[in-house]
Structure formats: structure tokens, C-alpha cells
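#help-structures
NK: newbie question, is this the right format to request a structure? protein is HTH luxR-type domain-containing protein
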Amino acid sequence: MYVDEHDAGLIRRDEGWVAVSSNAEGGRQDPRRSLGDFIVELESAGTGPVDPELCRRLWVGSAGRARFAKSVLRAAAAAGVSVDPESATFSEWVAELCPPLTLELGPGDAIAAAVLAQLSTVSESTTLRVLTAVSDDLLVGTGFRDPEGVIDRLESNGVLIRVDDVARGTLLQIPTLIAAKLRHDLAAGAGPVVASLLDVLIDHMESAGTVDADLLGDVLLLARHGGHWALLQRVTEAVGIPMFLLAPRPACTAFRLLPPKVRAAWSGLEFFGTLAEDIAAGTTAGTPAKIRTATVRQTGPGMLRSRLPGTLDALDPATVELGDVRREEQPTIFVGTVRSMIGLADAGRHGEAAEMGMRAAATIPSARARSIVRLLTAIALHHAGASRRALSLLNEIEGPARAGHIDGDFLLPAIIAWTALISAISGDHERADAHLVAAVEPSSEMRSGPGPGESSADPVPQPAVIIDELVTPARRIASALRALDRLDLDRAKRELDALSTYPELRTLWVYLPYIARSLAVLSAEAESGLLFVNDDAERFRDSGVLSEAEKDLLALGRSMVFIALGQLRWAEIDRERLSPACDARIVLDVRSTLVAGRNDEAISCADTWFYHHPLSPRSRAEIAAIRAAAKLRRGDEDAARSDFSTAVSLSAWVSSLLPLALLPLSDRKLLVELTADSPAWAEAAAEFSDTFATPEELITRLRTIGPVSVDIASMPQLSAGEAQLIDFLARGLTVAEIAVELQQVTGTVKNRLSALYRKFGVSSRAEVLSRARSFGYLA
């Protein structure tokens, strides 16, 4: 048998050295026996007859070392304890009572066995990585010349065995009893061994983005028991909350009851320590399944705000000066960055949050922590109006997140949900639909068992992933928006109902009034229904400072309802609240002109804006439909047919029927009949085949939907000059004073006032002001 001659059997510990047992120490050898010889020798131990099956298990657990196995039997018999070679608890107990273990190993191989004994089961690739990296540090930089040979020698000696795992394949393992004894004999010098081993394994977790559950459990317990707090903090960033899903019991053990000084010094350990204690408090039986369920519950909707409150004073990665600080002593920026980004988002400073996230992502070593920061950066970019950059960033992190996905984790579902939402809003409906399909429903395992105070009959389903508030709201909003596009009002209503009971939406609440108002415009059967929804939608208002885009969405929904009611002055007030970059201003203006009955003006405006570069394809489809209606009212059927066919084709292209459905019903029905033989309907039927089985079903829906929207407003429609006159009258100006303001003669002003009175059907200043207030022209 070959041994490495340069291996001295010593492990560095600070300034001294600690010996590792091997046959080189001159102790009495305990050679490996065959199973038959092993049984014969055990029967001579004087502990009575030994069950053959127990002998076999002892032979495996002790790697065929009969003298070691006899000492195990004697210790168990003396204490009256049943022998259980596979039990970690029994093995750790009996290892303290047995004499030192001597193996037929060279010094270097003995060190390798002692290192691998710190772990339960590992893959061969991880074993090679550990032996290569750890030995360089422990063996004065010389390392093992042949780590593959070390594995072969340990296997041939029975000290390393192969076990088959259905999910993970073939793994390597030091037999339980031998591993416990090696750990015990190494206890005095375990500190540097464990620290070096942990550093290697955590490095791999940080860079690979994938985590082995058993290995994670070993790492957590080794770091906690050895007091390696900096390394434990790195685990929190490399794995995060999913550690409670992958290794439930070790995670709870590692983070419960941390020393107060440790929690104060390490922000990540403070967070996970509190979480572990809350999970334990809410779990009566500490089974892995119960711990997983409690983890999901303790990180459910509304919990993130209290567990990780936003702050504007947390660490900014741009200000961190690392210098010559050792890696394990570097300040942790992940938790501080997340808290700062949440604080900036709550303050409506999304651009700053995105900038901070991009800076931090370049400095965080953990692949998972980096992906989380980039997810939050993408969300901030979306709120800041940079949807294309947000989608690009989400696309970059989706692949790695998919490769390292853990069942019950939020990262991949959140990436998918936000990609679907941002795509739906920005008009990339193909991507939105693909990601909504990918957003699978939660697994039954994660839903099992009601929480404290809940009954199994509770109608609201429990979240299936941790930090669900980053997943479900975005997914349901995207689904509702796409349902509206397809005129699937039942689906949109179900999503709205679910969202309205969701505990934590942050600023995403602004989508609920828009969805509710859109549903009302498309389905209300009486004017009162529109009026009620327009007022009732305000109940969704929640906390948070809104971005410009979110303010636009609120104003758009209100203006849309006022146009449907024919209350054009109120619609104009909300339209003026839209930001200059919002192309909905153009569409609302042209739509209002149509409802006001100014058809020539509507056509002129539509012609002006139709080819305007910043106009989105969907807005262009709406402009084409409105122009078709205006031309039909003028009696130009050929032009109307052509424009409406264009609108139908554009609607199919942008995968939204709303540009057609938002036309007044009377105009829409005539235009549908006029274009019944157009090939554009075949395109539309193909695009919306999942919702409508035949083109006839689609056309029938367009003939009946939105019955309340008015085609011509019954209220007086005022020009800018007439609105100005109303304002002068409300201010109490006399005819002479108005003439001065307008730089017109009094006779002209009197004529204009008479025309204004006739438009309102009144004959006095008081009456015209009263009517103007009732129509919304005055507050």
C-alpha cells in the first residue's frame, strides 16, 4: 500500500501542531477483518451472543475493525444501552468511551479520513475539492499529491464506503462509528480543520448557486458548534431562508439561541436567529415537513416588512473600503443593501434603489445573494420606468435561478412572476403568457397543515413559497391584465377578488383600481354600476409613495370611467394628471373627442398621432379603432371599414382586444358588421383561440360587451375658451373685467356669454355656474 512520505501526520493549529492518529504512531493496529472473522472475534468479546444482523451493521459502521467494535459493545453493555451503529447520537456517545482508534493508514490518509469524517455523505467531486483545498492549508501548502489515490486507499481500507442515493446518485461516506471516533480523537485540533473545510464548502456554495441538503446540514452544524460566526454568516448569504427548507432541523439548531453578542455583531445572524426561534415557537412537532410549513408561514405576506424593515441609513456598498481586511472579516453588505433598497422603494426613490442594487451586485460574492439584489434592482427599474432594462436583468438571472431552484423558494417564482407582469404592462404579451404558464401552482406539500389559529376550512389558500409577497401579487396582476386583454372577464374577476384579500401589496395596490374600473367599463349594465366602482375602487388604496407610472395608472383608470359615463370634464382633469411621457394621454384625448361628437377633430387628431414614433402598438390600435368610428359617423363606410380592419389586425398583433372593446357599443356593433368578411378576423380568432373556440364567439363577445359606455356625451362640451369664460364667471368678474382680461370689446364678450348660456340651456350667470358645477367643470 502506498503512502505519501512527506505527510507527517500533523495538522497546524495556530502556532503549534496537533497529531492525528495513524498506525505510524506505533499503537497496536486494528486491522480490517472479513465479515466472518469479524463475527468470530466479536463472539469472543465476553458480552454474550451477538445477533448476526447486528454484527453485519457493526462491521459496516466500524469498517471491519473488530477490536474497536468490541469496545463499542462493552461500553454499551456497561451502560445498558442498545447498540445502534447507524445512529449519530449513539456513535457520538460511544466514541467518548472507546480507546483511541488506530487504522492501517498512512499519516496523510489519516488526515484525509479525519477531514472527511466531519461530513455525512458527499459526492466524489466534493470529496476531491475538499481534499485538494483543505490539504494545502493543513499540510504546510504541500497538499496531497494524489487525492484520487487517497480516495482509493480509504475505500480499500473500508474507511470510506460508497452509498447509493436515489436523488443524488453514488456518494462517499465514512462509516458512522468510525467517523464519530475520528471526530472525537481530533477534537483538540478540530478548529483549523473545520474552519478550512467550511471555507472550501461555502466557497463552492457561493459560486455554484446549487446546494446539497446533507452537505448544508453538516456545514451549518459545524459552523455553529465551532463558533465560526463569520462563516455561518456567509452561509446565510449563500443559501438564505431556503436552508430551512433544505435542512430544516440543522438550520433551526444552528440559528436558535445564538449568543446576544453574536447577534448584535452580525446582522444576518440576527435576522436568521429571530426567524429560527419564531419557526420553532410555531412548530409543535419539529418534523422536517412541519418546519418547512412554519418557514413559509413565518415569511408569509406582511412578515417581510417587520422582519426586514426598510431603512435609508443602512450600509451603502459604494462606501465600503475593504483594504487588506481578511475575507471572513469583511463587512456584510447583503442585508444592509436589501434594507436600503426596501427603504428607498418605500420612499418612492426607485431610481436610487436601482443604482444601489447595481453597485452592490458587483461586490457580493454569493451567487444567490447577488441574484436577489438583481431581482430587487429589476423591480426598482420597472417602477422607475425602465422596463426594458428590468426585463433584460430578469432574463439574465432566470437561467441560474432555474438551475439552482429549491422547491418552496421564492427566487425563481418571483423572477417568473415579475417578468410576466412587466412584459404584460410593456406590451410583450408573448413573453408574459409564456411566463404565466411557467408560474406553476404551489405544491401540495408546502400547503399541508393549517397554522396556529387556522382551520382546515379556511377559504384563503396558504402561500406555497417563502416571501410570497414577491410572487403572488405580481403573478395575479399579470394574469388579470392578460385576462382583460382576452376579454376573459370571469378570470380577471377571480384574480381581482384574490388580490383584494391579499395582506401585503405595497405599491402594487394601484393595479387593483385599474383592473376594477376596466372590468366595470366592460361589464357594468347600468350607469350606477360605473359610478359605484369608480368610488369603490379607492378602497384598495394602501401605503407607499407611488412612482410616476403608478400615478399614471390611477389617473388612466379614472379617466377611462369618466369617458364611459360621458363626464368629459372630469376625464380631462384626470387626463391632465398623466405624465408627459404617458402615451395614454393621446388616446384618452382622441377618445374624449369622439364621445364629444367632434368627429372631424377626432379624425384629425388620429391622423396626427397614428404614426407618432413614441406611440405604443396597442395605443396605435386604439387610435385606429377610434378613427374608424369617427369616419363611420361621418358616413365614410369604406374608410371606416379599412381603419377598423387595421385596428383588428393590430389588436391581434398586440394580443389585446381592449382597443376594440373600449369603443362605444353602438359604433362597435356597426363596425363589426361592416368588416364581417375581413381576413383580419381570422387573425384575431387564431390569436385568441384559447378564449374563443370560433371567430363567431369572438365577434359575439364584441357585439355585447361594454353596454353602458355612452357614444355621445349628453352634457355640454366646452372649448378651451368657453371653459375660460366659466372660470371668469366663477371668480365673479364683470363683463367689463372679462373684456379686459381677454382684450376684447364688451359686445364680443356679451355675445360669447349668450352662446355659453344657450349651450347650457340657461339664461343667467347663477344658473350657468350651477350647471357647470353639476357637470364637473367647476370644483
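mod (FA): yep, format's fine, and the C-alpha cells are attached above. Confidence is low (pLDDT under 50) at residues 1-27, 314-331, 442-460.
NK: thank you!
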